[in-house]
Structure to design on (763 residues):
């Protein structure tokens, strides 16, 4: 041990190197480079606690009641000679998500090493703990309260676990190369996560079928063994205690014989060659490919042309190996990592473990779908509500629960398909999507409609129930309405076993748009989703914040007052959860920018940054004063009237696209019913001019045109809105039948026009 040095409350010293630089081989020198931080040992003056790389410690951080356990990777000197510890965190068994790992048997004293690297000050260390292998823990005659064991790794969220590993091998790899250890632990949990997500039900029931899939997940674990094997072989001549790698290999691959271990060799990786993609083979299902062809030939009396994807060259560049989380493997600022984690959880596409504040709607949907599947009868459910209030998410959660029951054998086998009408080139293509799910074959919409009608009439014992979610039903409404008629009529067939979940934005769409024969087939099973209240929006945001990693919670906190402020603002307008999340996410971005500009130079500051009401208010102002809102506010009165008429027509018809002639008629109705003096224009000759005549009929003299809006250029106003991206219009010759729709957010245009004194009375 080299000379001892003093710090405030601590004594530090440098451990003597176990190998001299003169005797070190070139191969060893490359691996040992940069390991100076592993040679520091510190000792606390008040109780004699000694810490060095490879020790496990119990940590008590501020504002966190429970203690945490970490593995010291290295000891470093920070600014002003402050010693800081670089650690890997452990997850306790209570922090593992049992909903995903229900098949794992966990013990109270079991720890799971994670790839999350962090830097903590030494003053948060409480005491040393003893982490060992599971075998060593079981051999203890008296279980100490500070004794734990580790036999698996997990990701930082505690959702995905690795295959069994040896903790002795982990420590040996840490001594060899800490950076490699962090990367390999991350790869082990990532590969096992991919294996769990890609494993089919057949593989789960047949262990031999999934054996090949597990080989990839073991590669990272074998690297741990190979690295430690090199360490042991190279230290034979220095009387260093060896680790029994044969026994650890048995822990990695229990009940299997492991192949002879070789030294790890690095090979240069070559980029993947770009090749022509092969035609996609038709998927096989229970009906079978041949049986589907015979069924179609029976319906038509001849063979039908089956579409298949042509070979298309891949234009993307070769894929590069990426890490699951860049912050996991590097020494990034922990506060910046916390901001990224917070923004990720507040994103509208973040995966949730549960769906809060929609329990009643979930129960109603679940019972209806479950009864129809068990009874094998067809039915229609009409689900309505404004955008952003959880309609599609609730249905997907219900079907995910039904899939779990199907795998357990508690409900009959069924198929599920989602059809988004906005993604269809033509509403008739919904036939092709549904028939492709049933048969696995792609045919034209006209043929698919015939096959579907014959299929749902057929009484076949092998036919499975099929659940179809038709999202954005408003966009499927055509003049003839034959597509919606068929989708609502097929469930009435005795042998159809078709369950249709129709999702739309307005509750009275069937009465206003659909004919009587269609609305009668839709039935009375209707579920109305209402907008979220401010309490529910606060609960949704809190639920997402609870998913943040515990290390991030120590760095960034959104104050409860800020959450309540954002929830009340959104609930007073629309109750849209997506908008509330977007405001909070933007507030976090504003707070992150403020943090970066006010940083005092200490990149690993232990101070907690708070997202407050001013950050939320600034985010709301940005959303209301966006470039789109500013452009709409600067439009002429005639252009604003066109937008008001379009919004009102969308509300009346329940359709996103409406003919231009209907919008013109809506403008006439608005102006003739208006009685406000602000809607009268002052002229130089005749006193007052009727705005309806001025805007729509164009009967104005040249003198009157000086103070009036040039409505004779109505076509120019429409094209101006289209060219600036506010409207979308169908390119056909007939202007009155040209379909027009908004190309921007409806809520944003609505809120801007409601703040305008000239046209707010129309809305």
């Amino acid at each position: 041990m080299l000379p001892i040095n003093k710090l405030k409350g601590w004594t530090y010293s440098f451990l003597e190197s176990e190998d001299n630089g003169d005797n070190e081989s070139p191969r060893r020198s490359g691996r040992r480079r940069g390991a100076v931080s592993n040679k520091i040992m510190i000792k606390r003056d008040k109780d004699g606690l000694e810490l060095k790389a490879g020790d496990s410690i119990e940590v008590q951080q501020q504002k966190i009641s429970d203690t945490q356990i970490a593995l010291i990777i290295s000891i470093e000197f920070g600014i002003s000679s402050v010693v800081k510890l670089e650690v890997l965190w452990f997850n306790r068994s209570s922090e593992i998500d049992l909903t995903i790992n229900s098949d794992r048997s966990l013990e109270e004293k079991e720890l799971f090493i994670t790839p999350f690297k962090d830097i903590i000050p030494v003053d948060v260390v409480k005491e040393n703990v003893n982490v060992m292998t599971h075998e060593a823990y079981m051999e203890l005659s008296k279980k100490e309260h500070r004794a734990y064991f580790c036999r698996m790794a997990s990701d930082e969220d505690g959702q995905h676990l690795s295959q069994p590993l040896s903790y002795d091998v982990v420590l040996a790899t840490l001594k060899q190369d800490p950076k490699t250890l962090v990367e390999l632990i991350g790869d082990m949990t990532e590969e096992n996560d991919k294996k769990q997500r890609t494993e089919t039900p057949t593989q789960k029931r047949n262990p031999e079928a999934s054996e090949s899939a597990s080989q990839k997940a073991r590669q990272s674990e074998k690297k741990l063994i190979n690295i430690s094997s090199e360490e042991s072989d190279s230290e034979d001549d220095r009387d260093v205690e060896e680790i029994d790698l044969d026994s650890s290999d048995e822990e990695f691959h229990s009940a299997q014989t492991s192949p002879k271990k070789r030294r790890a060799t690095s090979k240069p990786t070559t980029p993947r060659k770009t090749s022509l993609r092969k035609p996609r083979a038709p998927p096989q299902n229970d009906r079978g490919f041949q049986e589907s062809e015979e069924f179609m030939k029976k319906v038509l009396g001849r063979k039908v042309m089956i579409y298949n994807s042509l070979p298309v060259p891949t234009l993307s560049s070769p894929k590069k190996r990426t890490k699951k989380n860049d912050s996991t493997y590097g020494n990034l600022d922990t506060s910046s990592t916390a901001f990224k984690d917070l923004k990720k959880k507040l994103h509208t596409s973040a995966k949730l473990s549960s769906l809060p504040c929609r329990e009643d709607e979930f129960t109603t949907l679940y019972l209806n779908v479950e009864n129809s599947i068990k009874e094998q009868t067809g039915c229609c459910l009409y689900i309505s509500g404004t955008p952003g209030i959880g309609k599609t998410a609730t249905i997907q959660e219900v079907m995910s629960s039904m899939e779990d029951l199907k795998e357990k054998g508690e409900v009959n086998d069924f198929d599920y398909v989602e059809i988004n009408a906005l993604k269809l080139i033509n509403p008739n293509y919904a036939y092709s999507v549904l028939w492709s799910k049933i048969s696995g074959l792609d045919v034209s919409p006209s043929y698919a409609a015939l096959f579907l009608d014959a299929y749902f009439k057929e009484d076949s014992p092998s036919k499975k129930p099929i659940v179809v979610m038709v999202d954005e039903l408003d966009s499927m409404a055509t003049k003839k309405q034959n597509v919606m008629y068929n989708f609502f009529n097929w469930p009435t067939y005795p042998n159809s076993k078709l369950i249709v979940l129709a999702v739309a934005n307005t509750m009275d769409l069937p009465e206003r748009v659909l004919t009587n024969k269609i609305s009668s087939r839709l039935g009375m099973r209707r579920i109305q989703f209402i907008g979220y209240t401010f309490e529910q929006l606060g609960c949704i945001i809190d639920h997402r914040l609870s998913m943040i990693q515990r290390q991030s919670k120590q760095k960034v906190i959104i104050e409860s007052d800020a959450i309540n402020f954002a929830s009340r603002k959104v609930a007073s307008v629309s109750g849209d959860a997506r908008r509330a999340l977007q405001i909070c996410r933007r507030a976090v971005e504003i707070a992150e920018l403020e943090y970066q500009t006010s940083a005092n130079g200490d990149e690993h500051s232990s101070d907690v940054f708070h997202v407050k009401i001013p950050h939320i208010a600034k985010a709301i102002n940005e959303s209301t004063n966006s470039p789109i809102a500013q452009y709409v506010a600067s439009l002429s009165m005639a252009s604003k009237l066109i937008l008001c008429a379009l919004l009102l027509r969308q509300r009346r018809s329940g359709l996103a696209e409406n003919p231009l002639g209907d919008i013109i008629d809506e403008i006439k109705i608005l102006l003739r019913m208006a009685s406000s003096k602000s809607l009268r224009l002052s002229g130089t000759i005749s006193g007052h001019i009727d705005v309806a005549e001025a805007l729509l009929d164009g009967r104005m003299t040249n003198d009157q045109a000086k103070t009036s809006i040039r409505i004779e250029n109505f076509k120019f106003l429409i094209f101006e809105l289209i060219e600036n991206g506010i409207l979308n219009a169908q390119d056909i010759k007939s202007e009155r039948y040209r379909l027009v729709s908004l190309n921007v957010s409806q809520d944003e245009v609505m809120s801007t026009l409601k703040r305008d004194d000239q046209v707010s009375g129309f809305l």
